[in-house]
Design goal:
Layout (H helix, E strand, L loop, with lengths): L16 H5 L3 E11 L8 E6 L6 E6 L7 H4 L3 E5 L5 E3 L2 E3 L2 E2 L2 E2 L5 E2 L4 E2 L27
Antiparallel strand pairs: 1-2, 1-4, 2-3, 4-7, 4-10, 5-6, 8-9
Amino acid sequence: MHKLHDSDAPAAETIGFDDFLKVDVRVGTIVAADPFPEARKPAYKLTIDFGPAIGRRRSSAQITTHYALDELVGCQVAAVVNFAPRQIGPFMSEVLCLGASDEEVTEQLRALWTRRTDRYSELRTAETASLPKVEMSYIGG
């Protein structure tokens, strides 16, 4: 991944498939979304439930131009759960949410985030176990 999200930049260094398999990508459900006014760039603080094996983890996401806080609870998001925690200002980010960049080089996670449906509009944190789970797997040849 390129830090600058430059679509004209050459591909990053080639890695082996075994290296790729070390990256643990899971799908979790956002159970809380809070403002992050201390961030250098506009962002939200997210609490994401990855189920009993991983539990709840926190992350920051620069998605304020694409999502309102009240839209996020109940959404599912793909994230890397086995990176070391990273300090983002006063906040410790425990997972890396995945997404794509738009032409303005802002984070937009529409490709990898699913919206909740109307039946989740009254979602409560204690009810996240009843949300449908999304499985991700390697389907290449």
